[in-house]
Amino acid sequence: MFDASILLSALLNGLTTGAVYALIALGLTLIYGVLHIINFAHGASLMMALYGVYALKERWGIDPYVALPLMVPAMFVLGYAMQRIVINRASHGKDENILLVTLGLSIVMENMALLFFKSDTRTIDTAYTLTTVAIGPESAQVMVSLPKLVAFAGALVVSALLIVILQRTDLGRAIRAVAKEKQGARLMGIDVEHVYAMCFGLGLACLGAAACFLLPAYYVNPQVGNGFVLVAFTVVVLGGMGSFAGALLGGLLIGVVESFGGLFLGESLGQVGIFVIFIGVLLLRPEGFFGAKT
Amino acid sequence: MTTRRHFMSQTAAAASAMSFPLIAGAQAKSVKVGVLHPVTGALAYSGQQCRMGALMAIEDINKAGGIKSLGGAKIEAMLGDAQSSPQAGTAEIEKMNEAGVCAVVGAFASAICLATTQAAAKYNLPHVVDVGVADQIVERGLKNTFRFGPGYKKCAEVAVANLHVLNTAAGKPARTVMIIHEESLFGTGTANLLSKELPGYGYDVKEVIKHANPTRDFNNIALRIKQVNPDIVIPANYYNEYALLVRTMQQQKISPKAIYSVLGGAASSYKFVKEFPEAANGIIDCNHWFNPRDKRSLELKKRVEAQGQFFSYEVFMTYTAMTLLADAIDRAKSTDRAAIIDALNKSTFSNHIMPYGTTQFVNGQNMGAQPLMTQVVKGDIKVIVPRDYREVEPIFPLNA
Amino acid sequence: MTQLRKDIFSIALFVWTVAAIPFFTHSGVVLNFVMMALFACLIAQAWNVLGGFGGQFSFGHALFFGTGAYFQAIAQLSWGWNPWLAMPAAMVMAALVGAWVGALSFRYGLKGSYFALVTLAFAEVFRIVSLSVPFTGAGVGLMLPLKESVGNMQFGSRSGFVWLILGLVTLALCVTAYLRNSRFGAYLQAVRDNEDAARAVGVNPFHVKTWATVLSGGLMGSAGAFYVQVFQYIDPGIGFGSHTSVEALVGAIVGGLGTLWGPVLGALALHLLADLTRNLFGQMPGINMIIYGVVLIVIVMFLPRGIAGLSTYTPKSWRRND
Q: Which residue range forms the structural domain that includes residue A257?
């Protein structure tokens, strides 16, 4: 039914799309794994990051990849502030309230973007937006878009960085301690509020990186975050909440499933594959592939 | 049967009054018209473009002397936000009704129009539909609903007939077709109609691909196009997906004999042509379009662009809907709703910038309404069919 | 007075007061506002049954909403049923879906955020499938033909719809009062507060939680059927989209979980807020929603237990490591 080049293309396409999902999910899994909150504002935060990358390119001509060292720290600061100043204060630590606060934040962010940038879709034009790279043997050669390949590499690098931070640094140790046993960590002298805020900041910093890799191949408008939120949650659950390797592999897997699902079931119905997996994992192995068994 | 005593309606009226320009020493009453569009939410861009069109029309009408048969009464807009949902649209209609508007122009999206026309019908409030292409809107038997532009049945029929004209004139180089549509009302409805009409003209519909809203990636679909290798690709989707699809096709070096869209989201869009000139080049669209031979449309285009906006179809569709309404109010010589509905029914309005000729409403649909075929040529959008409005010779096929 | 008597009295007072409104005003604006506010109350109350009393936070309540709505539409369009017959049947259908999802999730021991996410996933699956399947009209959706008559549940004036939704809200209030005053309700809350302890004294958590899902789903389904009668159009986005799920949970949490009047107050307050901001600031698109979002955050900041403020608890099962 499908010849080799089509299948190979779908596979590669799925992997590169999945890499973007992984980048978005990395931040979410950190926030969920440590703070145990389902961050309703994740999609809107991605949207803010995308607008940031857009503005840097349009206003000051800074290329998205060059903008990485600018966007990542900026998003980190935003995330730290959001958690420390708003979420922590407003929610009094209750989970249902955290939900509402992040929801309120997402509404505010989306409509602030609407106010400042208006509602039309924005894209950027770079020299390499349309460049493709040929991959595969002569008989089944496939053209893969360059920005997506870069995104793939980016996802690997960011995951590796996060794993290193968590395993090798003091901050990482503190984060792991708080995630495992909050009260105990507090008793050991760890400033839990600060660690929470650092986590949130790191989570949003990942989104900053994701935005830099995503915008060349995509677009931005105030509602753009909504299209990624559900997929990101699926990836987080699949990979195991709190596991970066899980988010990376989960993202790649979901990307491939979506790609092949679209190929065999049609693009509209094919989306269902993602959620069937989501349900299956939740029912049969809720800790995901790499999560710790409770 | 409205009472103004309750607090809510007073607040509403007061709030809307704050937005009206003051009328200095008016001897003539002002004519209140509701302008209802989804200016926030998912459809915000289109809603805001529509609103701009309406306000520009009101400005022009007032500058030209207002409603002459009412002593030069000026039109006052009561703005409403449908918030991209039928519920909010309905609530706004209730407000507008109580504020005493004599008619409503809106609401862009078919799903919202279905709700707002019905809500307005309860009060016999005339509702001019500016875009809303779903045919059910005018097929429900509501006496207050009038649509100036064409519905998607008409657009699909015209598109297919004209494709055949173009193809035959070029010696019939194209035979196979692939349709790519978005999954909701607009895309599915259009695709269904096309699939029915095309075989009748001898075209082979090889495949119909439905995609989600939003779709994040079109590489698989592009692949499929490459594999099926149709002569003509027909997209029917909204701006974002259309743009992504065409860019992906360009990236994957897929160039069919024609990209022929029906109500294509980005096809006859100045914004798209400006941002992606290469990908847009040669695309043919069957869409709402103004009369290119009417100088006023070009003037309007210049004014819109001077404000830094794009002259998109939402702007001129709502602009002309408003001029239609103003003409009807003038003929009715009153702001009485029933009189306006009667005037619309009998309308022969022809002093407009659309290629519709003399207006004639049958069951709320303007029979003269038609889409035009345009093609992107040298970075500009020109009309190719029908001949009366042709600006350039069509390039078909794109690559022999 | 016993709690049950107090509850019944307050419900009766509420119903009589609201039912009288259409006699005091014919204003379309007011009646429409009352109707949509009651609608918001209904979905918040439906969510509260499972979320507030059962302690299981669902993020996919639109699943039941859409089921009710589609059933109501299909029954009339494809089988020619009378809408008065279709509505209770739609509620039963939604309740059955609730039984299925509840049984499946609780059988596998899903709790807390896992349960929340699985309900979200189910809602999405239904949305995606209904986009492709012909009998739901696929992407085009379903439209009820216009035929105004009481017998056809399409009321000429808003008053009829106001009384209809009031009836459904009353049903939800009675169900809530039942949960507050019955043994089943006590079991449910016991499971909510400490599932293991409840099991130890002989309560069957699976049984109890699934029944709560059934009740919650049925009530939500009634809201879906109501929606279709008023707006006469349903499509996958409207039926199964997350907007309805969010509106339901927000109303209940802001109002006060696990209380009788919390969801009503919360839904009313939020609906009023949305309407006011739209009326006062509708001129500059976006500002009204920003204010709405800020007020939401502020409400949560200063009223952590919700408006009703009486019942307060943090579902123990929510936190994985506490």
A: 4-117+131-284
Sequence-distant (6+) residues with CB within 8 A of A172 are: A165, A166
3-state secondary structure of B183: coil
> Which of C157, C231, C285 has its CB closest to that of B40?
C285
In this structure, how many other beta carbons lie within 10 angstroms of the beta carbon of residue A151?
Answer: 26
Q: Is C168 helix (H, G, I), strand (E, B) or coil?
A: helix
Q: Are B112 and B178 within one domain?
A: no
Neighbors of chain B with 3 or more C-beta pairs under 8 Å: A, C
Closest by Cβ to A90, choosing from C285, C290, C297: C297
Which of A6, A123, A218 lies nearest to residue B223, judging by beta carbons? A6
Per-residue pLDDT of chain C (322 residues; tens, 9 = 90+): 788 999 999 999 999 999 999 999 888 889 999 999 999 999 999 999 999 999 999 999 999 999 999 999 999 999 999 999 999 999 999 999 999 999 999 999 888 888 988 999 999 999 989 988 888 888 788 988 888 888 888 887 889 999 999 999 999 999 999 999 999 999 999 999 999 999 999 999 999 999 999 999 999 999 999 999 999 899 998 999 888 998 999 899 889 888 999 999 999 999 998 888 878 876 677 788 888 889 888 888 888 778 886 444 455 445 444 4
Per-residue tokens: C207: 């049984």
For residue B273 the two structure tokens come to: 């042509």
Residues C190 and B150: their CA atoms lie apart, in Å, by 61
Q: Are B205 and B192 in contact (CB under 8 A)?
A: no
What are C's interface residues with B at a Cβ cutoff of 8 A? 25-30, 32-33, 36, 128, 131-132, 138-141, 143, 145-146, 156-157, 231-233, 235-238, 243, 275, 278-280, 282-283, 285-286, 288-289
B276 and B207 fall within a common domain: yes
For B326, B350, B351, C288, the CA distances from B357, given in Å and listed in that order, are: 17, 6, 9, 42
C-beta separation of B39 from A111 below 8 A: no
Nearest to residue B107, comparing CAs of B76, B128, B126, B124? B128
Q: Do A179 and C321 touch (CB under 8 A)?
A: yes
CATH number, domain with residue B278: 3.40.50.2300
Counted domains in chain B: 2
Tell me how close the Cα of A9 comes to any Cα of chain B, in angstroms: 8
Query: How far does C138 lie from chain B, in Å, by closest CA?
Result: 8
Answer whether residue A124 is part of any domain.
Answer: no
User: CA nearest A110 in B: which residue?
Assistant: B41
HSE at residue B200, side-chain half, CA atoms within 13 A, is: 8
